[in-house]
Amino acid sequence: MTNLHQVQPLLDTARMLASVAQRDELAGQWPSFELTVAERAAPLSRRRLTTLQVNLGKLCNQKCRHCHVEAGPQRTEQMTRATAVRVVELMELAGSEDLALLDITGGAPELNANFRFLVERARARGLRVIDRCNLTVLFEAGQEDTAVFLRDNQVDIVASLPCYSRENVEKQRGEGVFAKSIKALQILNELGYGQADSERSLDLVYNPVGPSLPPAQAELEAEYKERLGEDFGIVFNGLYTITNMPIKRFLYDLKHSAQLDDYMNLLVDNFNPDNAEDVMCRDLISIGWQGELSDCDFNQMLDIPVPRAGRTIWEIESLEDFSQGSIAVADHCFGCTAGAGSSCGGQLS
Question: Which pLDDT value is given to residue 6?
């Protein structure tokens, strides 16, 4: 009988080829992002590295329609302890005082056995830590004390909540997700998250339900605060609006609904050269679950490596290597520069 260890390499290869095919599918149908930036914006190159973003794998208790990671309950890709230890070694050897933030993502990163190890070592080094939490994971078996762990380790939370209404949330994320998300936010509020006098930051993330640009971040944040406050007594610090990237599941949706051309043209037509100055890849390096290095989480999902010789954490001696140099781009990058801009920290301009 064929076991998972025999099948997994074939699955990994198939997914890699699918990622490359997606990348190639976007290229050549509109003005290239690389040429557009060269003609209309400042050169796209690295500044000092301030943010280390680590993707712990693709296992997740949800399976969202817009997920650029294609995460879900059946995914088996998970960072091992050896890889997590190497991440910590690089983090602790970093000589630069500029490195200030460990941004942990997934999948649902809390489901990885190395999540707490990374949090504790980063906090011991004095780094700020962000947990990109889908909220409902707090109700999974074995996660009963996760919210308290986050509080006790002063971990900031960036929580996914694509809308303040049940209908839109469950359209993206599945039945029953909204009620659990609201309950999780209430629990976090009780622990001090999002409160005006608390050092524990709770930010929410909005993604458009369909193929459109996000609305103005400040206006939508005010609307979220009003609705969540009045309806559920929930408070939070800020709202990040993030454009849906035309890759992975969202790309499949666009193709299925024959909206890919319209969406890409929307992104290209709304290219804002000012956003190119502040895109997250200038200050961030992304580490994948196997230790692969990319200029951002989106490039990681398309198997676009950093444009240099050392392409994994096993091939570099220091994170200082990423405080200068070029950045790998492709046409999905129009998603970060369209309109008010988009990054892991919300709009750019």
Answer: 47
| Bridge partner list, 292 | 312
Q: Which residues 6+ apart lie within 8 Å of 70 measured at CB? A: 15, 58, 248, 249, 301
Domain containing 282 equals 31-337
Q: What radius of gyration, in Å, describes the C-alpha atoms of the chain?
A: 19
Per the DSSP assignment, residues forming a β-bridge with 338 are: 271
Residue 65 covered by a domain = yes
Phi, psi (rounded to 5 degrees) for 343 = -150, 180
Q: Where are the extended beta strands (E) located within the chain?
A: 51-55, 101-105, 128-133, 156-160, 202-206, 238-241, 284-287, 293-294
Binning pLDDT at 50, 70 and 90, where does residue 201 land?
very high
Strands 101-105 and 128-133: parallel
Q: Is residue 217 part of a domain?
A: yes
Residue 311 domain-assigned?
A: yes
83-132 pLDDT, tens digit per residue, is 999 999 999 886 556 899 999 999 999 999 999 999 999 999 999 999 99
The order of strands in the sheet holding 128-133 is 238-241, 202-206, 156-160, 128-133, 101-105, 51-55, 284-287, 293-294
Residues 6+ apart with CB under 8 A from 251: 22, 25, 26, 260
* Residue the block writes with tokens 């099948």: 7
Average pLDDT, the chain: 88
> What integer is the mean pLDDT of 328-346?
91
* CATH number for 123: 3.20.20.70
pTM of the model: 0.89
The answer to whether position 15 is within a domain reads no
Handedness of CA 291, 295, 298, 300 (dihedral sign): negative
Distance of CA 298 to the CA centre of its chain: 8
**pLDDT tens digit string along 26-43?**
655 788 999 999 999 888
Please tell me the total count of domains within the chain. Answer: 1
